[in-house]
Protein backbone atom coordinates (compact mmCIF):
# COMPACT_ATOMS: atom_id res chain seq x y z
CA UNK A 1 0.00 0.00 0.00
CA UNK A 2 1.02 3.56 -0.58
CA UNK A 3 2.17 5.35 2.56
CA UNK A 4 -0.59 7.93 2.72
CA UNK A 5 -3.13 8.71 5.48
CA UNK A 6 -5.81 6.47 3.93
CA UNK A 7 -3.58 3.41 3.64
CA UNK A 8 -2.30 3.90 7.20
CA UNK A 9 -5.93 3.97 8.41
CA UNK A 10 -6.70 0.73 6.52
CA UNK A 11 -3.57 -0.89 7.93
CA UNK A 12 -4.65 0.07 11.44
CA UNK A 13 -8.09 -1.49 10.90
CA UNK A 14 -6.55 -4.71 9.54
CA UNK A 15 -4.09 -4.84 12.47
CA UNK A 16 -6.99 -4.41 14.91
CA UNK A 17 -8.94 -7.14 13.12
CA UNK A 18 -5.98 -9.53 13.22
CA UNK A 19 -5.53 -8.84 16.92
CA UNK A 20 -8.85 -10.60 17.61
CA UNK A 21 -9.39 -14.34 17.62
CA UNK A 22 -12.33 -14.12 15.19
CA UNK A 23 -10.39 -11.87 12.82
CA UNK A 24 -7.33 -14.11 12.81
CA UNK A 25 -9.49 -17.20 12.32
CA UNK A 26 -11.36 -15.59 9.42
CA UNK A 27 -8.16 -14.54 7.63
CA UNK A 28 -6.52 -17.92 8.23
CA UNK A 29 -9.56 -19.85 6.95
CA UNK A 30 -9.72 -17.75 3.81
CA UNK A 31 -6.02 -17.80 3.00
CA UNK A 32 -5.30 -21.44 3.90
CA UNK A 33 -8.29 -23.01 2.19
CA UNK A 34 -9.32 -24.83 5.38
CA UNK A 35 -12.79 -23.31 5.13
CA UNK A 36 -13.37 -24.91 1.73
CA UNK A 37 -15.95 -27.63 1.44
CA UNK A 38 -16.01 -29.77 -1.68
CA UNK A 39 -19.43 -30.93 -2.79
CA UNK A 40 -19.10 -34.71 -2.69
CA UNK A 41 -22.84 -35.36 -2.85
CA UNK A 42 -23.37 -35.89 0.87
CA UNK A 43 -25.40 -33.64 3.16
CA UNK A 44 -23.18 -34.40 6.19
CA UNK A 45 -21.24 -31.11 6.60
CA UNK A 46 -17.93 -32.76 7.56
CA UNK A 47 -17.88 -34.61 4.21
CA UNK A 48 -15.88 -32.60 1.70
CA UNK A 49 -13.83 -30.77 4.34
CA UNK A 50 -10.27 -31.33 5.54
CA UNK A 51 -10.30 -34.05 8.15
CA UNK A 52 -9.53 -33.06 11.73
CA UNK A 53 -6.43 -34.75 13.11
CA UNK A 54 -8.27 -37.33 15.20
CA UNK A 55 -6.28 -38.73 18.13
CA UNK A 56 -7.06 -42.35 18.98
CA UNK A 57 -6.97 -43.47 22.59
CA UNK A 58 -3.79 -45.50 21.91
CA UNK A 59 -1.95 -42.30 20.93
CA UNK A 60 -2.14 -42.75 17.16
CA UNK A 61 -3.06 -39.67 15.13
CA UNK A 62 -4.86 -39.57 11.78
CA UNK A 63 -1.91 -37.71 10.27
CA UNK A 64 0.38 -40.63 11.13
CA UNK A 65 -2.00 -43.13 9.55
CA UNK A 66 -2.06 -41.17 6.29
CA UNK A 67 1.68 -41.03 5.72
CA UNK A 68 1.72 -43.96 3.29
CA UNK A 69 -0.64 -42.27 0.81
CA UNK A 70 -3.63 -44.53 1.37
CA UNK A 71 -7.09 -43.56 2.51
CA UNK A 72 -7.99 -44.15 6.14
CA UNK A 73 -11.12 -45.66 7.65
CA UNK A 74 -11.41 -44.67 11.30
CA UNK A 75 -13.94 -46.84 13.11
CA UNK A 76 -14.82 -45.45 16.55
CA UNK A 77 -17.65 -47.95 17.07
CA UNK A 78 -17.26 -50.58 19.79
CA UNK A 79 -18.02 -53.52 17.51
CA UNK A 80 -15.68 -52.63 14.62
CA UNK A 81 -18.53 -53.25 12.20
CA UNK A 82 -16.72 -51.76 9.19
CA UNK A 83 -13.55 -53.86 9.44
CA UNK A 84 -14.42 -56.43 6.76
CA UNK A 85 -15.47 -53.80 4.20
CA UNK A 86 -12.22 -51.91 4.71
CA UNK A 87 -10.20 -55.15 4.64
CA UNK A 88 -11.56 -55.89 1.17
CA UNK A 89 -9.74 -52.73 0.00
CA UNK A 90 -6.70 -53.15 2.24
CA UNK A 91 -4.20 -52.12 -0.42
CA UNK A 92 -5.94 -48.73 -0.74
CA UNK A 93 -7.36 -48.15 2.75
CA UNK A 94 -5.76 -48.33 6.15
CA UNK A 95 -8.28 -49.41 8.81
CA UNK A 96 -7.94 -48.19 12.38
CA UNK A 97 -10.43 -48.99 15.12
CA UNK A 98 -10.81 -47.82 18.66
CA UNK A 99 -12.08 -44.92 20.67
CA UNK A 100 -10.86 -41.41 19.89
CA UNK A 101 -10.05 -38.76 22.45
CA UNK A 102 -12.61 -36.58 20.66
CA UNK A 103 -14.63 -38.26 17.91
CA UNK A 104 -16.79 -35.14 17.34
CA UNK A 105 -19.90 -37.30 17.67
CA UNK A 106 -19.09 -39.66 14.80
CA UNK A 107 -19.00 -43.45 14.85
CA UNK A 108 -16.68 -43.71 11.83
CA UNK A 109 -14.96 -41.52 9.23
CA UNK A 110 -13.53 -42.36 5.80
CA UNK A 111 -10.72 -40.05 4.71
CA UNK A 112 -9.34 -39.83 1.18
CA UNK A 113 -5.54 -39.80 0.66
CA UNK A 114 -5.67 -36.01 0.15
CA UNK A 115 -7.06 -35.55 3.67
CA UNK A 116 -10.63 -34.77 2.60
CA UNK A 117 -13.44 -36.57 4.46
CA UNK A 118 -15.22 -38.82 1.94
CA UNK A 119 -17.82 -40.22 4.36
CA UNK A 120 -18.81 -39.75 8.00
CA UNK A 121 -21.16 -41.97 9.98
CA UNK A 122 -23.01 -41.27 13.19
CA UNK A 123 -22.62 -43.25 16.42
CA UNK A 124 -24.03 -46.40 14.79
CA UNK A 125 -22.35 -46.31 11.36
CA UNK A 126 -24.44 -47.47 8.41
CA UNK A 127 -22.47 -50.28 6.80
CA UNK A 128 -24.26 -49.95 3.44
CA UNK A 129 -23.48 -46.25 3.06
CA UNK A 130 -19.87 -46.86 4.15
CA UNK A 131 -19.52 -49.61 1.56
CA UNK A 132 -20.96 -47.31 -1.11
CA UNK A 133 -18.44 -44.58 -0.23
CA UNK A 134 -15.54 -47.05 -0.19
CA UNK A 135 -16.60 -48.38 -3.58
CA UNK A 136 -16.89 -44.87 -4.98
CA UNK A 137 -13.48 -43.69 -3.82
CA UNK A 138 -11.33 -46.80 -3.54
CA UNK A 139 -12.46 -49.51 -5.99
CA UNK A 140 -10.61 -50.47 -9.13
CA UNK A 141 -11.78 -48.38 -12.06
CA UNK A 142 -12.53 -51.51 -14.05
CA UNK A 143 -14.70 -53.14 -11.39
CA UNK A 144 -17.32 -50.45 -10.83
CA UNK A 145 -16.65 -47.81 -13.41
CA UNK A 146 -16.20 -45.16 -10.73
CA UNK A 147 -13.30 -46.12 -8.47
CA UNK A 148 -10.01 -44.37 -8.06
CA UNK A 149 -8.85 -42.24 -10.93
CA UNK A 150 -5.59 -43.04 -12.65
CA UNK A 151 -2.85 -40.46 -12.97
CA UNK A 152 -0.06 -41.35 -15.37
CA UNK A 153 -0.72 -45.06 -14.89
CA UNK A 154 -0.92 -44.86 -11.10
CA UNK A 155 -3.97 -44.72 -8.88
CA UNK A 156 -4.59 -41.56 -6.86
CA UNK A 157 -3.34 -43.29 -3.70
CA UNK A 158 0.04 -43.91 -5.35
CA UNK A 159 0.69 -40.40 -6.70
CA UNK A 160 3.77 -38.87 -5.16
CA UNK A 161 5.24 -35.40 -5.26
CA UNK A 162 8.77 -35.43 -6.74
CA UNK A 163 9.49 -38.89 -5.40
CA UNK A 164 8.17 -38.11 -1.93
CA UNK A 165 4.81 -38.57 -0.28
CA UNK A 166 2.49 -35.71 -1.18
CA UNK A 167 2.64 -32.91 1.40
CA UNK A 168 -0.18 -32.68 3.91
CA UNK A 169 -1.51 -29.82 6.03
CA UNK A 170 -1.11 -32.16 9.00
CA UNK A 171 2.66 -31.94 8.53
CA UNK A 172 2.84 -28.15 8.50
CA UNK A 173 2.31 -25.29 10.88
CA UNK A 174 -1.45 -25.89 11.06
CA UNK A 175 -1.16 -27.71 14.35
CA UNK A 176 -3.68 -29.97 15.93
CA UNK A 177 -4.44 -27.25 18.51
CA UNK A 178 -5.87 -25.01 15.80
CA UNK A 179 -7.76 -27.88 14.14
CA UNK A 180 -9.27 -28.90 17.47
CA UNK A 181 -10.42 -25.33 18.04
CA UNK A 182 -11.86 -24.98 14.55
CA UNK A 183 -13.62 -28.33 14.49
CA UNK A 184 -14.70 -27.79 18.09
CA UNK A 185 -16.53 -24.69 16.88
CA UNK A 186 -18.17 -26.82 14.20
CA UNK A 187 -19.16 -29.36 16.81
CA UNK A 188 -20.57 -26.54 18.93
CA UNK A 189 -22.81 -25.78 15.98
CA UNK A 190 -23.37 -29.59 15.73
CA UNK A 191 -21.85 -29.47 12.30
CA UNK A 192 -25.05 -28.29 10.74
CA UNK A 193 -25.66 -28.45 7.00
CA UNK A 194 -24.26 -25.58 4.99
CA UNK A 195 -21.86 -24.48 7.71
Search tags:
FAD-dependent oxidoreductase, 4-stranded mixed beta sheet, two-stranded antiparallel ribbon, 195 residues, alpha+beta, Glutaredoxin
Can you offer a commentary on this structure?
By secondary structure, the chain is an alpha+beta fold. The chain has two domains: 1-32, no CATH class; 42-188, Glutaredoxin (3-Layer(aba) Sandwich), CATH 3.40.30. The chain has helices at residues 5-18, 21-32, 62-65, 83-88, 127-138, 141-144, 176-188; strands spanning 71-75, 93-97, 108-111, 117-121, 150-151, 154-155. The strands form two sheets. It has a four-stranded mixed β-sheet with strand order 2-1-3-4. A hairpin with a 5-residue loop joins strand 3 and strand 4. The longest helix is centred in the first third of the chain and has 14 residues, at 5-18. The two termini are 34 Å apart. It comes from Amycolatopsis bartoniae. Residues 141-173 are annotated as: Disordered. This is FAD-dependent oxidoreductase.
Poorly predicted parts: 142-176, 186-195
Overall average residue pLDDT: 75
Coarse shape? elongated
What is the total number of structural domains? Answer: 2
Instruction: Name the helix and strand elements from N-terminus to C-terminus, one letter apiece.
Output: HHHEHEEEHHEEH
Percentage of residues in DSSP E strands: 5-15%
